[in-house]
Amino acid sequence: MTTTPDEHKVDAPRRIRCAVITLSDTRTLETDTGGQTIVDRLTEVGHEVVHREIIPDDPTLLRPLLERFRDAANLDCVLLTGGTGISARDQTFETVSGLLTRSLPGYGELFRMLSYQEIGAAAMLSRATGGLMGNTLLLTMPGSRAAVCLAMDRVILPELGHLIREARR
Question: Could you say which DSSP state residue 153 is in?
Fold first, then answer.
C-alpha cells in the first residue's frame, strides 16, 4: 500500500523538542534576531525549545556540542543559524557534514531555490545543509533574519513533524 506525505503527517509528532544554536562571534541573546526568530516560530506552533546557545563558529566548540545533542534522549532536532557562507570564518558546513549519518540534500537545494526567488543568484553563497545525526535531525541556515524566516516558514516548519516521524522509523 502506497502512502502520501499528507498521510505521513497525520502520524507525525505534534511537539518537537529542539535545540537552537547561533554561530556568531558578536551576537548576544539580546542582539540575536535570527536565533530568536527560530525560537519564536517554534514556540508559536507548539514545539519546545529545550536548549538555546550562542557560540563562535569554531569546530572545536561546535563538534562536541553537536555530538552531545546527537546522543541526547530529550532532543529531536537541532537548528543552527550562522556560518553557512563561504568566507574563511564560515566552518559550519564542514563541521556539520562530518557528523551527518544521513544527509538530506533536498533541504539545502529547496532553501537555495526559494532564496533565489527572493535575492537572485546570491543564493548560491549559502551552504545551508541538513540531515540526521543518528536519529536527531540537524538543519542549518544562514544568520540573517530574512533567511531564517524563509527557512523556518517555507521549508522547516511545514515538514518538521514529518521529518521527525521518518527519522524515528
Answer: I
